[in-house]
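[Meeting: bench + compute handoff]

Bench side (C.D.) handed over the final construct sequence. Compute side (W.E.) agreed to return the predicted structure before the next meeting so the bench team could plan truncations. Sequence as handed over:
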Amino acid sequence: MIKEEIEQGKKIAHQAEFIWGQETKAGQLRVERRSQILTSLAEIDSTKKILELGCGTGEYTLRLANTASKIIAIDVSIPLIQQAKQKVKSSDVYFVVSNAENLPFKDNTFNAVVGNAVLHHLNLNKTLDEIKRVLKSDGKIAFTEPNMLNPQNLIVKNIKFIKRLVGESPNERAFFSWQISKTLINQGISEVEVKPFDFLHPVTPNMLIPLVNKLGEFLEKIPIIKEIAGSLMIKGQLQPPLTKVQRY
């Protein structure tokens, strides 16, 4: 899978932001919202050291850097990392070409591990093992990932010729909310929350964005309907080790 992701990065590097729907006004609003979600869920501030998985061209890194936290951003794709370095000019941000399933960092290094649309490219259990290893004892995780119950995701992720047509890598998938919740809990992650969100499509015409946003806010509150939103916001916390009780 990692080799395929490296090749995919080379293939799409010249048009990655177009393929990911980040070039439109609606796409940029989606990036802004997701960045705010990651910052909030992971409680990122200037005192924290953050690992961003799958930084791509640096769109999210750029916004996370506004928190003045220390950030190490990784991706398996050299061309994408090169673009990210050109975009993000901050002494608090370091870019590393690395595989999230085999991180080159010491144990107990980061206060939080975050990422957008990255876990669904990876072997989830291997990646979670590495995340737990590099997190500090009370470290947090926050991710936004595609929701498999969304009709578009359901079609794109499961029909191969459509997947190729829209520029996705062969092993990309999406998550059911209960599936990712169960996996995180089984991996020993606590305080797990997975919520569907986002009805704003990146190709939404500019003049319709305010209306779609209002409608989306409403739909995200309606049981059953909210379950088909485009994405999932995912949070959790590493369980701190039990402390020994001193007896007198």
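W.E. noted at the follow-up: The beta strands are 49-52, 70-75, 93-97, 110-116, 135-146, 189-197, 231-238. C.D. will use this when planning the next construct.
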